[in-house]
Amino acid sequence: MSLKNLSIFSLSVLLFSVFLVIYLNQENSKKLNRIEQWAKNNQIKVDKSTKAQKFTIDFDEKEWNLLKQKLSLTRFFTSLKDVPSFDFGFDPDYARELVEYWGNKFDWKSQVEYLNSYPQFRISINDTIIHYVYYTTNPTAEKRINILLLDGWPGAFFGFYKAIDFMEKNYKDICFEIVVPSIPGYHFSTPLNKKHNPVETSMQFDALMRYLFGELAHYYIHGEDWGSIIATTMPQLYPSRVSGIHITMPITSESNILNNICSLLLPYVPSLFLSDQELEHEFSSRYSIKSKLWKFWDEFGYFHLQATRPDTVGHGLTDSPVGLMAYILEKYSSWTFERLNKISGSKDGGLEFFNKDDLLTVCTLYWMTNSITSSMRYYANSFNAMLEFRKQNLDFFSLSVSQTVPVGVQMNLNDIFVTPFWFIKSRYLGLIQYKIVEQGGHFAAFQNPELTVKCLVDFITQVEYKI
Amino acid sequence: MIRKLFIISINVLVLALFWANYKEQQSNSESEKIEQWAKNNQIKVDKSTKAQKFTIDFDEKEWNLLKQKLSLTRFFTSLKDVPSFDFGFDPDYARELVEYWGNKFDWKSQVEYLNSYPQFRISINDTIIHYVHYTTNPTAEKRINILLLDGWPGAFFGFYKAIDFMEKNYKDICFDIVVPSIPGFGYSNPLEKVVDPFDTTLIFDALARFVFGENSQYFVHGEDWGSLISTFLAKLYPERIGGIHITMPPLTSFFDFNSLLYAFAGQFFPNSILTEQEIKFGFKFSLSELASLIIKKTGYFHIQATKPDSIGAGMSDSPFGLLAYVLEKYSFGSFGMNVVGKKDGGLEKFNRDDLLTIITYYWMTNCISSSMRLYRNAFYTLEKGWPRTVLNMKKISAKVPVGVQVFQHEVSFVPFKVLKNKYLNLSMYNLVENGGHFSNFENPEKISNNFIEFINLAL
Questions:
Q1: With an 8 Å Cβ cutoff, are A315 and B91 in contact?
Q2: Prediction pTM value
Q3: Which of A130, A443, B320, B335 gives B346 a disulfide partner, CB atoms 3.0 to 4.6 angstroms apart?
């Protein structure tokens, strides 16, 4: 099919879609109102009887010795000689190196002390255990900001510790009331014996904020990975309470037919949709349909498996430390660095950039809490829930976020997907800040705590002082 | 309503693109070019090539290490509000199997059983191939050469019951049987380079020529990857392949204009494209059915085809992980979605020792990672170019009879009317009630009978 024919065909579909969009926008507002009403009716009650318990992580010597025993019995396999390392997934030779370090040099006891450096609590909301860090920076400062820091998979709550430290030292005139909850099923938000999805998480995290700061409290949200999705859902549910959201992973493809048609056209007329800065950073190829489809194929095997059969892959990861490590750390590699130059053929998949102890602390945390399977089940639960909600006409995952809620986006160029401003704005109607981070990856606060905090606080400042 | 319109317009666009592609693929002369290429690029097998006898050792040290690991297994809990096997292999049942495996399973006896047929190893194209070579009823007059091909996660000894059945029930035929293991599977190891299904096809044909003779004809029975390799053999060497008998027509061959048109029709007029029997069996072939198959059933396929090493690490190190991952296939693959809600995922229907022998075989040969790499190799070697890039889509010429035997719970389904377009000499087509993907394992007698009937028809 020639380019001319394709363009004519696409343009006629485009015109058709314009009328569609007008119709859909009206539907959109109606649906958002329904969701807001549903949220009010289903709000979780938080009263005086709800009590949070202080929580400290134990150094469990017995479990640590069992882990080391298993590590010493690790059975490896060999890499292929005629392909670049990391092309087939986590390189078995580098895995061997890390396992040796983990079993012989890694000091879990010190890491536990580090993990305990910020005050933690556990609370039961809606029969679900939620673990969270709650810390107040510069308590005497006049300006008070409540903020939720949300992580995802395969992240960990302490990934925000450096960011919290930076916030305290560099913004002495602001008192940040910081809450870092773990999604039910993750780490110490366990055990979890029933299904749980992002809408429920959103409701529970909102309940947690009302518990801590009062029924009428306002708060900001910074969200990465699942945290971005939760941060997108919370203002749909509680537009009057969420002061603003700052996210690294905006979700846009479900929402808008026009968006999808335009992404088809993007490679041919990039300047129609992209800013100069985006053109400079090759967004026309990064956001093309071809690139997106390739990414879906090449990087989403884990997603596909976890969204359909989490327990099947869970067994090996629950029982084998190297299995857990390879599976998780592969993401810290492929979602942080550029593939061709930094990962393919490299000895370490780029991971030497990170502190080895930090990476192994992430793995050991999943290991000690035996939470890898329950964390993966979140994917299957979310998809089932999405279909259920759609049946009830509560299309959380495809509706827009109202204009009244300010949105800031930190676009990390090495992240799994890159989305241009124009497309984000079509769903996040209150988009007021959009920052491109050149060497940034998926684990924004973990990799770049200072930069991430700067983006976040700039955003909050903009909203607070209406700049 | 709008959603439906949108889906339809996307379908139309996709079909149009395939039409454009299809036009290019149409020429018959290309098939001839491929056959010529195959002749010119045949792997040489001469007198210097030697096969070595092979016996499986009972490795006591490795067996004890396995048991030690099993005793240290760490488990997790099932969710209370979902049916068993809904999220994958049930953790409670896995625990039960692990306890049996570590305490009651007798691997030594199983090794004796695995050695009951003569085995060999040979190096072809610098690749180690393990195979069984057995001749039934050597004094019978009628001689037929056959290749039995399995797939993932199968095993060569899955065919043992079939071989035994063929020997006892067809005393007037001497079957010269070869059961090779795909490079990277089991004892076709170690494998340190990329070998894809196409390479495997050339290697298996070389093996057949080595065992049966340079110009000898042979028949092929193929399941899973074996089905795909069988179709490749038929397309590359139509002169020598007497016929192929397959249980799973490879779905990748049917993403062409014609077949998608049928799927489109099947979306709106489901019964128009199916035979009466297919309708009775509840088979469906529609766009939404294909989409549902791809989304619901192929998570493992997707990750194995992209990041096999990431998932291989855990299964090479944890017997429990290996068991759950592999036996989940024997559950869903044999019984379909009926397993959801069943405490054992249907697996008690099989002999527990048989299942654990398969797992222990994957464990002892440390081949789970190398076996999964085949999936990635199948896609990423397309960059090697022609004829790999086109072979999948070509038709099988009328020179090679094709017999298809599909079991009710097979993982994928392609209707008779669609198969006819690709397999120009579709001489047999049978549907079998109550059977699943692992045909040699579950129904050795049925596949043997059907295969031999097919061969007799072809001769």
A1: yes
A2: 0.92
A3: B335
